[in-house]
Amino acid sequence: MDDSKKIVGEGSKNMIEEGSKEIVREGSKKMVEEKSKETKKKASEERKKGSGGNLQKKLEEVLSCLLISVGALLASFSVVCILIPNDAIDYGTAGIAIIISKLTNWNLSMCVAGVFLPFIIAGFLILGKKFGIKALLGSAVYTVGIAIFERIPFELNTEHFLAVVFGGAILGAGLSIILKNGGCIDGSEIFANIVVKKISDKTGKNFSMTYLLIGFNACVYAAVFLLINRNAALMSLLVYVVATSIINHFTANYEAIKQVTIITKEPEELVNAIKKELNKTCTMMNSYGAIAGENKTLICYVNYFELPKLKEIISRNKGTFSTVSTIEEILR
Questions:
Q1: Helix, strand, or coil here: 324?
Q2: Per-residue pLDDT tens over the stretch 82-107
Q3: In principle, which of 86, 151, 233, 284 could form an S-S bond with 224, CB 3.0–4.6 Å?
Q4: pTM of the prediction?
């Protein structure tokens, strides 16, 4: 009897152990299944977010290209229908093209295309494909706009001073739209950008484009004064003053250096991307937020045409807080 009880007890014990093992196995299986479901759900959500983000970026790029085209058409309308009939010209490489057209009687749109082309190619090679495409788009629409408006019988023939101020304002508005959307239709800006980039890459220091652009345009107006007449030079100078005032108002002085301050908890990836893609370095400081706690503050200096790329780098790193300010002068 004792042996039979012992055998029954051992059998019950084995059954209980096996039952508990099976329960554990089933529980583990359910946990694994639940985890895999959660992982799949998260992966699906991330894919949806990624596809939604890509679609949004594409729509933003399309809108940006449309606005660049609108700005280029405004600029070409101002030059052909208001400025040239009132004895004034545009500034930068567009001004050089107008001087060549006036002296040779060659087609203005062809002169513009011929003068712009070397600068656009240089922009592609040195400043990058994205910048080059937008510069090409803006320049192409500007050139086509000049060809179209030359055939439209519209001229604003009024008191020269009023016409030039109005034309300069429209020109400045068009160029502001182009610059705000990462485009460019003037070779002088590409030239100044390339020179500043080369100097910065060589010395590691940041420089403003202001003096280069002023020097370039001073040469253009000197050519107008010597080759055309003094009235045209003075009217054109007024165009430059009005247009640049409008541009600086809407672009926060695009010729100046921009300081970007970034607050983040994970600075390494940002610093590496900025170094690799922009060839820029950052100043890094410890900081503390009342809610977020300890973090790092990065300070980086770029020019206006490098700013969109830096914004793209920042957007790839979530959990950052950034501000952009204009620097009037850097003391060394």
A1: strand
A2: 999 888 888 899 999 999 999 999 99
A3: 233
A4: 0.77
Query: Do 202 and 78 have their domain in common?
Result: yes
**pLDDT on residue 17:** 59
Q: Are residues 240 and 127 in the same domain?
A: yes
First to last CA, the chain: 102
Confidence of residue 176 (pLDDT cuts 50, 70, 90): very high
Q: Are residues 82 and 218 in the same domain?
A: yes
Buried b (16+ CB within 10 A) or exposed e, 198-217: eebeeeeebbbbeebbeebb
In this structure, what is the dihedral angle of CA atoms 265, 269, 273, 274, given to the nearest 10 degrees? 30
Is 34 within the bounds of a domain?
A: no
Pair 279, 196: CB distance under 8 Å = no
Do 88 and 239 meet the contact criterion of CB atoms below 8 Å apart? yes
Containing domain of residue 148, as a range?
A: 63-251
- Quick one: tokens of 318? 């979530």
Q: Are residues 182 and 279 in the same domain?
A: no
C-beta separation of 207 from 256 below 8 A? no
The answer as to whether 292 is a domain residue is: yes
159 shares its domain with 306:
no
The predicted-structure confidence for 273-295, as pLDDT tens digits, reads as follows 999 888 888 889 999 888 878 89
Task: Quickly list H helices, 78-209.
Answer: 92-104, 108-127, 129-150, 160-180, 187-203
Q: How far is 118 from 141, CA to CA, in rounded Å?
A: 17
Residues 96 and 214 in one domain: yes
Q: Which residue has the tokens 């370095």?
A: 281
Q: Nearest Cα to 74, choosing from 180, 158, 218?
A: 180
